[in-house]
Design brief:
Distance between the termini: 48 Å
Strand content: 5-15%
Radius of gyration: 23 Å
Number of strands: 2
Helix content: 25-40%
Structural class: alpha+beta
Largest sheet: 2 strands, antiparallel
């Protein structure tokens, strides 16, 4: 990790196209720098964000797909 971070930072700082994509429209959202709030929950000042809920549901689904590890058994005494 210590060796990778300077390389990643160098790639980011060297990217000549990075200023062209800032504050541009994308198919999934108007601006990727803004929060993905769909609406405010009525009666509260709490925003409803869909992407964190989708991520949580996907993580739960993936945990059900992962097979359970075999149970540890004690070695039999002979």
């Amino acid at each position: 990790m210590v060796l990778q971070m300077p390389v990643f930072i160098g790639f980011f700082l060297h990217d000549p196209q990075r200023h062209r994509i800032a504050r541009r429209e994308f198919p999934l959202g108007r601006d990727l720098a803004k929060p993905d709030t769909l609406f405010m929950i009525p009666g509260t000042s709490f925003p409803f964000n869909l992407l964190p809920l989708l991520m949580g549901a996907t993580m739960l689904w993936q945990s059900h797909l992962t097979p359970a590890s075999p149970a540890w058994t004690r070695p039999s005494k002979r």
